[in-house]
Amino acid sequence: MLSSRRKGFTLVELLVYLTLAVIVSSITLYIYVNTSSGLRDLKQSSSNYIKLLSVLTQLEKQLFSIYMDNVSIRLKNGRLSFYTMVPVLYSGIVRAEYYFDKGEKTFHYEEYPYIDGRLGESGLKRNVLGRFDEVKFYALKDGTWTEELSEKDKTGVIKMVIDGQDHYLVLE
Q1: What rounded mean pLDDT belongs to the chain?
Q2: Is 86 exposed, middle or buried (0-12, 13-18, 19+ CB in 10 A)?
Q3: Which of 43, 49, 119, 156 could cross-link with 81 by S-S, CB 3.0 to 4.6 Å?
Q4: Please, are residues 107 and 132 in contact by the beta-carbon 8 Å criterion?
Q5: Sequential DSSP letters for 45-86
Q6: What's the CA gap between 52 and 72, in Å, rounded?
């Protein structure tokens, strides 16, 4: 009786092993790539949301501490201007200027160190608050939304549209 002892794998066994190894590694790679891209998207969206919240928080604080001395809020050419007692870059009562640069898609904050009677003009110190696709300001005047508000006009609500989302800041 001859006993034949195998000393290796047959070609069929080797092909089955390679096929299973390729299937398992491709599934693992697919899961890794999808998880990585999902985490990257989550990081980007949470970063954008944090930027948005910080912009809204800063603007809300400053608007609620508005300094009113015959001059209130001015809204013209997409620039929101007012005097506030909550400065970011200086101390004391400052002129706060918010505007959006459409070309660079950047939202800017500028500050002037004291009340100068020049609402709607550039400040001395500038800060980029974030990059957005679109930022617009509206004020509620006599029951309708307007993009222009003079210093003498009164408003109780500012609407800020950032990347298609409406955010309301109620002043009254």
Answers
A1: 91
A2: middle
A3: 119
A4: yes
A5: HHHHHHHHHHHHHHHHHHHHTB--SS--EEEETTEEEEEES-
A6: 25
